[in-house]
Amino acid sequence: MSLIKDRSPFYPGQPVPLEFFVGRLSQIERIERALKQVSLGKPQAVFLTGEYGIGKSSLAQAIRHIGESKYKLLGIHVLLGGAKTINDLSERTLQRLIEEDSYSPKVSEKIRNWLAKYIGQQSVMGIQVDLSTIKVDAPTLSAGFLPFLREAYTRLSTSGTKGIVLIFDELNGIVKNPDFAHFIKTLIDGNALSKNPVPFLLLLCGTEDRRLEMIANHQPIDRIFDLVPVEQMEEKDIRLFYKQAFHSVGVEIKSGSLKMLCEYSDGHPKAMQVLGDNCFWINKDEQISFDDCVRGIVQSAKDIGQKFIDNQVLATIESKDYKSILSKLVDDLDSLSFDKSELEKKLSASEKSKLTNFLQKLKRLRVISSSSEKGVYIFNSRLVVLFLRMRFTKTDVE
Questions:
Q1: pLDDT tens digit sequence for 192-217
Q2: What is the pTM of this model?
Q3: I need a surface site. Which of 159, 178, 343, 390 has the fewest CB within 10 A?
C-alpha cells in the first residue's frame, strides 16, 4: 500500500510542537520550581545552556506553556536572531507581546487595548503590528524596560496573571554588544532592589560560549543566573519520540529500524528531526524499513551538510586528501574526543604524512580543539560528529 503523504510529524527547522515534545524531565522540574516561585511573587533568572541544535528553544517553549497553563504567567518568547542593540531587543519584545496569544483571550485583549497605538489595520491574517511606531518608541522602552514590565504586570494582574515569563532566545548577535550584559544585570538588580519587585522569570537560551561572552563583557553577570544545561537526550526518550511521531501519521517503525535511528541521531534533537523527516518522505508504505533508514541517513548527511556545516569545513571533508582519514576517524568514534596516536594506527603511510596538516586545518576551522591531554582532540560540535558518521556510514549506498 502506498501512503498519500500529507504532513510530516517532524520539524527539522523549528521548535518542536508541544504534542511531539518528549523527555527533558529533569530540566523541566528544575525550571518549574522557578515558575512556582514567580507565581508566589519572587523573581527568578535562569540560563538555559547547551550546544547548537540541542533543543533549547523547544524546551523554552514548553516552559512557557507550563508557566501559562499551570501558573497563570504571561509568556513572552523573544527571538533575538539578527538583533544587535538594546533598542532591537525592545522592538522585538514589544512586537512579540502584541502578536502572541496569551494563555487567556481576556489577557490578550487587555494587552492589545493597552498597546493599541502599535497595532495597524487588523485582517483575517491576524494582528498587523506597526513596526515604524515601535521603532520610534524603542529607545524610551529600552531606558525604562523594568517600568514597562511593571506596568504590564499591574495591568494584567487584575485578570489573574501572577507574573511574567520573559524568554530571550537566539543570543548569538546581541551578546557581542557589551551593553546587553549590562542591560540584563541592571534589569535583574534593579528589580531586586525595588520596593515591590515585578514577579518575572528571565530565561536566557544560548550556548556556553555565548554565556561566557556575556561574562567577559560584564563579570558580575556570572552570579545572577541559575544555570540549567541541556544535553543529548536519553535513548528511552529518543525511542519514545520516534514511535510517537511515526504513530501520529499511521506509520510503524520496527525495532531494528528504530535502533538505527537512535544510533545515528545520538540524542541530538536537530539530527533526530532531520533524520526522521527524511525517513518519513522516503518511506512508501506503512512501515519504516531498514532500507528507508539507510536512504534517510544518506539524505540527512546531505541536508545537515548544506544547512548547518560551514562551506570551508565541507570542502575540507570532501577533499581527496582528507576524506579517507575522516572515514577511518569516524569508523568507531563514539564520543566527541579522539586520540591522534590511535587514529594513526588505522592510517596508511600516505595518510599519516597528511595527518598533522589535516588536524591543524580542522583546528583553524574551529571543528576541533586540543584537549588538556596530549595528543587528544575534541570536536567542538556534536552535530558535526553526527554529520560525519552519517556521511561516512558503512551503509552508504552511494
A1: 999 999 999 999 999 999 999 999 99
A2: 0.82
A3: 178
